[in-house]
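Hi! If you just cloned this repository, the fastest way to understand the data is to look at a raw example. We've pasted two of them here, unedited. The first protein comes first, obviously.
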Amino acid sequence: MAELTRAAYQAVITDRGYGDITTQIAPASDFEYFYAEDHHQQYLYKLPNGYRCHA
């Protein structure tokens, strides 16, 4: 699915004059997953108004 999506999107961005997609696509089993610290888990549930753009 990821490879097909990348190919479809690559065709669109190439047509518009942009370069190649260089993001690596690999099986999730190739990587070790780490859960975030507890204060990052369910952040918006714990702090419903806790996110704002600082720009």
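Ok, and the second one:
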Amino acid sequence: MLKFSVCLLLVLLFFISENRAEILIKNLKIGISDKAGDIIFKKGLTFPEKLDEIKDFDLSNKFIAEFEVKSSDGPEDEKFVLNYANLFFTSLKTNAQISSVAKLLPNKNKYKVVMTGRNLFSKMSVGGKYQLELALGSFKENPGILYDIGTLNLVGSGVKDHAEARIDQVKPEIHHIFSQPERMVIPIFSYIITAISAVPFFLFYLYVSVLDFL
């Protein structure tokens, strides 16, 4: 469903555009860093070239992609801003999918997207192979690009090969126990207490009445 929405957006961008210029991807570089931040894998790609499978991407690794975009109609040094730039990770086992937004680095005029193995697993709960696709779109240029970069294999300690099915069990019925009502005072005692309480007021009334009479 998510991929369908992306394709629909790219089609809309195609029809909204007023010219026939195209988005060009330049200097695409893929890198993998380890826990210490050292680059352990690096490769440059030229569209539509694909990566060989990244076989050992574990929870401590970080996937990094940097690239530039140009317009086929514009000058080479012109800054170009995309309206849509996402890298999609699709599990080949479950077809579940998440995306990470590519952010513009204004000082370098480049886009950069990062995904850690731990973040990928925490959101997907499944290891194994993931297809990587870069989706780019702009209202000024058409058509958009859906670039199949390649695959990576999420492995390592604690990574499951298959997502565990969630089982919703029937919850026990909640029984509310009402407390026993307190015993009521016998009505006759209630009347007697009321009468006794009224005696002082009655006597006071008589006393005042006698004083007025005298």
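That's it. A detail worth noticing about the second one: The longest helix spans residues 187-213.
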